[in-house]
């Protein structure tokens, strides 16, 4: 699974979408106005600026790190960066008829521009729509094999006319052969949209295993480790844990949740799990240091080892490594980028202040 950084549409197309308030590009890019210092969604109803006064960003945090503040009218930081209507309709159609082969002609008949769809899926899923469809069908085949279905039936039900073609595609996607799939643990993934950009969530039957920003540099390595070291077969899909984290994450960004209840499963070394357990103890809205965590573990000289284990955390926000700062009070490195870390700390601090004010 190769997750790449977002690729913005051509500049002229973004200008057109901005001027026409084209909501089809919601979540694809943000518009920032140099003369006002404000950034908006493409469909914002505010008066449109001159194109020469505009620059575009793939993610809200990129706009914020460039010094822009969120528009009060369209509220681009709300957890409203959901998939646009045209994508939601398509996803529902896929769910209703998973065997349907979507050609460009069929997409156009549904009013969907194939190139725009390709760009949206590349940004938010790290793959094209058709690659996602293939991966989804293979995921269904994986589920069938896990439930005792024969490899032959799984192959033909997935639309493959030859067993060799199915085996090759299966092994390329899941890094295991279909014969070994019956003994592997499916790791289902879905894309989540947040005010800080798209994230990917992965969960197996025991709990949530990964939650990361799609542009995290170490993400591909993390997924490969889950596949190769822990034997997971990664496939698109949904389960109760993924639905729960989507709901809880939206509440968190709205300032209405301070703790996560979704079950977790944390493959890792014994020391890493000890560090992650300490991360979970950091109170909402507060911060600590690597040295303090090392002291809590009874290993005061292990600050560097704690930092390495902290960086191996696969559950952004839930295991709150963003609450770990430098001994001098400065922001330290963060896998999702320091602008996101600063945003998360501001969000929690503001929520705590509001709660304290309401208490009086």
UniProtKB/TrEMBL annotation:
> What task does this protein carry out?
Involved in the cellular defense against the biological effects of O6-methylguanine (O6-MeG) and O4-methylthymine (O4-MeT) in DNA. Repairs the methylated nucleobase in DNA by stoichiometrically transferring the methyl group to a cysteine residue in the enzyme. This is a suicide reaction: the enzyme is irreversibly inactivated.
Cross-referenced SMART domains: HTH_ARAC (SM00342)
TM stretches of this protein: none
Q: What is this protein called?
A: Methylated-DNA--protein-cysteine methyltransferase
Q: Which reaction does it catalyse?
A: a 4-O-methyl-thymidine in DNA + L-cysteinyl-[protein] = a thymidine in DNA + S-methyl-L-cysteinyl-[protein]; a 6-O-methyl-2'-deoxyguanosine in DNA + L-cysteinyl-[protein] = S-methyl-L-cysteinyl-[protein] + a 2'-deoxyguanosine in DNA
Domain HTH araC/xylS-type per the UniProt entry, residue ranges? 111-184
Species: Pseudomonas cucumis
Q: Which residues form the active site?
A: 321 (nucleophile)
